[in-house]
Design brief:
The structure is a single chain. This protein has helices at 5-26, 39-91, 95-104, 106-113. The protein is mainly alpha-helical. Helix 1 packs antiparallel against helix 2 (39-91). The chain is rod-shaped, with a radius of gyration of 33 Å.
Length: 114
């Protein structure tokens, strides 16, 4: 999950909703459906999980963005090298001389037009 920090954000959101859900049980807006755990204990545990996973999500997201930027720069540099290779290839085109000979000789250019 360290590779995909958005998953930690989902865990933080779910535990945040659980915390709000437990607050409703503590204030007795409704009957808390989990019988084995007190609403206050459930709220504290959910709140701690929410805080920890949100912090983890934010830290990993920063490092992920930084890693993406570094990889993008490497891709751009590799693309620049490929462009330079293609430019040198096009400048040394062996067919360029053949085309210029055809343009200079009207008999050959007439045959190409047919």
């Amino acid at each position: 999950m360290a590779i995909f920090p958005d998953r930690w954000g989902v865990v933080a959101a779910i535990s945040g909703v659980s915390t709000i859900f437990s607050l409703g049980g503590i204030m007795e807006f409704y009957e808390f459906p989990i019988i084995t755990v007190e609403p206050s204990t459930f709220g504290v545990i959910s709140g701690v999980i929410c805080a920890v996973t949100w912090r983890l999500h934010r830290n990993l997201k920063f490092y992920q963005v930084q890693s993406i930027a570094e990889r993008s720069e490497a891709i751009i540099e590799a693309s620049q090298k490929d462009i330079e290779r293609l430019e040198t290839l096009f400048k040394t085109d062996p067919f360029k001389d053949i085309e210029s000979r055809h343009e200079g000789n009207p008999d050959i250019s007439k045959n190409n037009e047919k």
